[in-house]
Amino acid sequence: MASRQALSEAERRVVALWAADCAERVLGLFEAEAPDDDRPRDGIARARAFARGELDAAGEIRRRFVAGRAAQAALGPAAVAAARAAGQASGVAHMGAHALGAAAYAAKAAGLVAPDRDNAREDEVRWQLAHLTAPVRAALAQLPALGEDRAGPLGAGLLARGDLAVTIRELQAALTTT
């Protein structure tokens, strides 16, 4: 049986665009540190191309880790989070739940780059929620709650801890209340 975190290919294509939008908002944080490393930008572009049906899931599944590995080229925590947001966006072709990972890492990056602004992370989450289309909202609402299903990114891994978990729980709560 496929993981509940996978979503159908059509749903993954729908959420890939939103995930790319979330990651792209913080991409400049990475590029400021590593201007010659285009892996995160390429991962976001591939997520958009997948959303448009220009790339197939199988090919993207093989390439899904490339953008996230760029985090190793960054020193600052905000730049690392931005690269991971791009990596999660590029992983949506594999599992739809990675869209929430992209949003969570983008919100983390936004909070880290503005530590003097207590609400920077929350502002990013508000932007993310405001930019959910009805089809994206419906697809994401099908995902299991964080920690409920171990077979995927919403299991007990990195997304289930700290600010990432807080953000994903806020997003998931908003999906069920509006």
Give the N-terminus to C-terminus distance in angstroms: 30 Å
Largest sheet: none
> Count the strands?
0
Q: Briefly note the structural class of the backbone.
A: mainly alpha
In terms of DSSP E residues, the strand content is: under 5%
Give the rounded overall mean pLDDT.
Answer: 93
Instruction: Classify the helix fraction into a percent range.
Output: 55-70%
Radius of gyration: 15 Å
Number of helices: 10
Which consecutive residue ranges, at least 5 long each, have pLDDT under 50? none
What overall form do the CA principal axes indicate? globular
Strand-and-helix sequence, N→C? Answer: HHHHHHHHHH
> How many structurally independent domains?
1
List the helices and strands and how they pair.
Elements: H1 9-24, H2 27-33, H3 39-51, H4 57-63, H5 66-69, H6 77-90, H7 98-113, H8 120-130, H9 134-141, H10 162-177
Describe what this molecule looks like in 3D.
By secondary structure, the protein is mainly alpha-helical. It has one domain (9-177). It contains ten helices and no strands. The chain is globular. The model has no long low-confidence stretch (mean pLDDT 93).
Would you kindly provide a brief summary of this structure?
This protein is mainly α. Helices cover 63% and strands 0% of the residues.
Name its key features.
178 residues; mainly alpha; 63% helix; 0% strand
